[in-house]
Amino acid sequence: MAFEVEPGFVTQYNLIQRLGARYHRYSGRSYAGPTPETYYARVKTLRLGDAKVHDVVANLWTGEPGVANFAGNVGRSILRQFNVTFDAMRGAMYLEKNANWGKPVIFNRAGIVVDPVEGGQKVMTVLPGGPAESAGIAVGDLITRIDGCPPADDINDPAFLQAVGTRVALTVKRGDALRDVQVTLKELL
After folding, report:
1. How far is CA 81 from the centre of its chain?
2. Tell me: the pLDDT tens digits for 37-78?
3. How much is the pTM?
4. Can you tell me the distance from the alpha carbon of 13 to that of 108, in angstroms, rounded to the nearest whole number?
5. Which of 42, 84, 130, 186 has the smallest number of CB atoms closer than 10 Å to its CB?
6. Chain mean position to CA 53
7. How far is Cα of residue 172 from the mean position of the Cα atoms in its chain?
């Protein structure tokens, strides 16, 4: 997760149109269960205190505004660019740039959103025009192997974050049938 924006804030600032978001699908699960559907977009600059983070992947949540009194959440793909210190006594957080500073946040280059499940990764979203769609992968398919190995238990599987043009071999289960497909990664956001 990079940057999740609550529905009320998305609507108030017309972010779907302003950011040119075009993919609207399932966004994943959190500790509390499924999160709202989302538009995926790229934010050119996000300011965190004095630091500006560029090319941030954002989940623009849709649906009813939440009851929370906040605009969104900053996730690990942004925070990994900093050494983070929490000062609980003063209610402050300090961000110091680290060796990951300025490295781009990569959106899944296979064009899928998955949920880790028993036996693999369940495909929850297939983005139109993406490599997974071209390979015939559909919502509900189960990815059982990636490049011959069991998939990582991570929605941001490193195999799908490799360089544009990388070919990734997948074993996909649909019903009782297994098939092998290849996806050639490309930039989608």
Report:
1. 17
2. 889 999 999 888 888 888 899 999 887 766 667 788 888 888
3. 0.82
4. 26
5. 84
6. 17
7. 21
Supply the Cα-derived Rg of the chain in whole angstroms: 18
Q: Kindly report the length of the chain.
A: 189
Q: How far apart are alpha carbons 135 and 166 in whole angstroms?
A: 14
Residue 118, H or E segment: none
Is the distance from CB of 87 to CB of 93 less than 8 angstroms? yes
User: What amino acid is encoded at 152 in this protein?
Assistant: A
| pLDDT tens digit sequence for 66-114 | 666 778 888 888 899 999 999 999 999 899 999 999 888 888 999 999 9
Amino acid at residue number 186: K
Every domain of the chain and the residues it spans: 3-97, 112-184
Residues 101 and 51 sit within 8 Å (Cβ to Cβ):
no
Six-digit token string for 126: 């297939």
